[in-house]
Write a structure and sequence with these properties.
The complex is a heterodimer of chains A (219) and B (85).
Chain A lengths: L1 H24 L8 H12 L4 H9 L1 H21 L14 H24 L7 H17 L11 H24 L10 H25 L7
Helix pairs in contact in A: 2-3, 3-4, 4-7, 4-8, 5-6, 6-8, 7-8
Chain B lengths: L1 H21 L3 H21 L3 H29 L7
Helix pairs in contact in B: 1-2, 2-3
The chains are: A mainly alpha (219), B mainly alpha (85).
Chain lengths: 219, 85
């Protein structure tokens, strides 16, 4: 009976996959070619890389909400951490691992800064740079160089929320003169760089926090 | 040559995804998931989407893998003897 059920499931899944493939081949021509629209409006965006232009200028609203969602995820994580905080453990990694991690850490920070700067005119940007920063923090934690975080102090809280707040402040400031996140053409590049820099910092902290807040009890 | 590479990549993606779902122990499933993330990074790079490849490598394979391994360690600590990685 179970075997029959499995065969039936496989058949249904196969049929669905086939339908999807057929549907893909019969997609209608899109009415608006978004890639052309982006290419036509690149000079007004303040950056030279189309992906960054879409993420932070044309569809900046989406990115704003994404940061809010990530911040919410971290808040939910914090809610699960016990009230008294997890016990702090002394850093106790292997010396070779610690040394390698300590050598790698500055290079990781350098790579993050490069990605942030490169975002304006080639692949890179705030998300990637923040993820690299967070990976560096996780590496340092796993090697036992730094202890896990227990409770967020006021400075850490400010750092975690900073990127979102700067983004929100810029959005609110632009609301006075026009529509939400509609940058003036001559200031777009500077504003995007400001937002990206603060986003990188906060994203690094948020993504690292998802790992470091719960790793205090590692033995 | 590149067609062969793409086909091998597609097969590896499907294989690692299947291993991640069907592995007998959670530890193996997590390792398969990280492998899947790395293959996915290569696939995005082959599709000439380096932005997504960067994000996938850093977040999908790196951070999520570390989080899953950490959760696995916490689970093993809670009830020892059950599914050690």
């Amino acid at each position: 009976m179970r075997r029959l059920g499995r065969v039936g499931m496989a058949l249904v899944a196969g049929l669905f996959a086939l339908t999807l493939i057929v549907a893909l081949f019969e997609l209608p021509e899109p009415v608006v070619r978004l890639a052309d629209e982006v290419a036509a409006n690149m000079p007004a965006s303040g950056v030279e890389h189309p992906v960054t232009a879409v993420l932070l200028n044309f569809r900046g609203y989406d990115t704003l909400l994404e940061i809010a969602v990530l911040l919410l995820a971290l808040l939910a994580t914090l809610a699960v951490v016990p009230e008294a905080g997890l016990p702090m453990t002394e850093a106790d990694g292997e010396p070779v691992l610690q040394t390698v991690a300590q050598i790698a850490a500055p290079l990781i920070v350098l790579a993050a800064f490069y990605l942030l700067w490169a975002g304006a005119h080639r692949p890179g940007g705030a998300f990637q740079a923040g993820a690299v920063l967070a990976a560096g923090a996780v590496l340092l934690r796993l090697a036992g160089v730094v202890p896990g975080w227990v409770r967020p102090g006021s400075r850490l809280r400010a750092g975690l929320a900073g990127g979102f707040l700067v983004f929100l402040a810029v959005a609110a400031g632009l609301l006075v003169g026009g529509r939400l996140l509609e940058y003036p053409e001559d200031a777009a590049g500077v504003l995007i760089l400001l937002i990206e820099a603060s986003l990188t910092f906060s994203l690094g902290l948020i993504l690292a926090g998802l790992f470091l807040f719960h790793s205090g009890d590692r033995t | 040559m590149s067609l062969v590479l793409d086909l091998v990549l597609a097969m590896s993606l499907l294989w690692s995804a299947w291993r991640a779902l069907a592995a007998p122990s959670i530890g193996r499933a997590v390792v398969s998931f990280i492998t899947f993330g790395l293959f996915m990074t290569l696939a995005w790079a082959r599709l000439s989407a380096p932005d997504i490849a960067l994000a996938e490598a850093a977040i999908g394979a790196g951070l999520t893998g570390a989080l899953l391994l950490d959760a696995l360690g916490a689970l093993a600590q809670r009830d020892p003897g059950k599914d050690r990685p």
